[in-house]
Model the fold of this input.
Amino acid sequence: MTNAAVAIDKLGFNYGKLRVIDDLSLEIPSGTSFGLLGPNGSGKTTLIRLLVGLLKPAGGSIRCLGKAPSPSNAKLRGYMPQLPSLYAELTVKQNIDFFARIYGMKDRKQRGARVDKVIKLVDLWDKQKTQVMKLSGGMKQRVSMGCAIVHSPPLIFLDEPTVGLDPDVRANFWEFFENLTHAGTTLIISSHTMDDAAHCQKLVFLRQGRVIALGTPEELRSATGSKDASLEDAFLYFIRRSEEYI
Done:
C-alpha cells in the first residue's frame, strides 16, 4: 500500500512470558479513521504504546509516516492516552500551551492563536482559566484531546477517547474526528465499544494480540452472511472463526 500512514510487519511484544502482540502485520491508510477494536486484554493499548514509541518491540518492525517511532520524530504525531496525562494544578490553557511548547511551537503569537483555537474546538473556552483538578472527567478528556492536537500533527493516536463522556459530547468528538480525516489527518482509535467502532472508516478486530478481521464496518457485518448483523454480531462471528484455528 503506497499511501500507508502506518506499516506494521510481524510485530511481537511480551510482558514477561505473556505474549501480548503476536506476529501482527497491518497497514493503515493515510487520512483514515482506523479503529482498533477488541475486549480488554486484546492488546489495543499495548499496540498504541508500541506505535508511539513508549514500548520497544520484541520482534518485527513499525513505520509511522515512513519512520520508526522515536522521541526525535514525536512532533509528527499526537497521542491521547487512556488516562489523561495532565498537570492538575495548571489551568486548561496552561496545559495546552505547555504541550504546544513541548512540540516545538516557539513563536509566542502563533502558539497563542493556535492554543485559543484548540480550546474553542474542544468546547472549553469558558473553562480555560480553570485548574484541571477542578474539572469533571469528561472535561479532562477534552483537555487531553486539546493537548494531542495542538501542534496539528498528521497522525493522531487516541486510546479510548470517548470513555466517560456524555452522549452529546461523544457526538461532538466524532464530528470533530471526521473533520480531521477530511483534512487529511490519520486517526488511530482504540475502543471496546461498538458505537465507537461504527464511526470508524475501517476497523481491525483484535483478540489476544492477533488480527482476526479487517475491513470497513459494512464489510465486517456483511461477512456474517446476515443482512441484519450488527458489529457486535460480526465480532462474535470472527471470534468463533478464530477459535476454529486454535
Remarks:
- Helices lie at 44-51, 92-102, 108-121, 137-149, 167-182, 194-199, 217-222, 231-243.
- Residues 167-182 form the longest helix (16 residues).
- The chain has a mean pLDDT of 91.
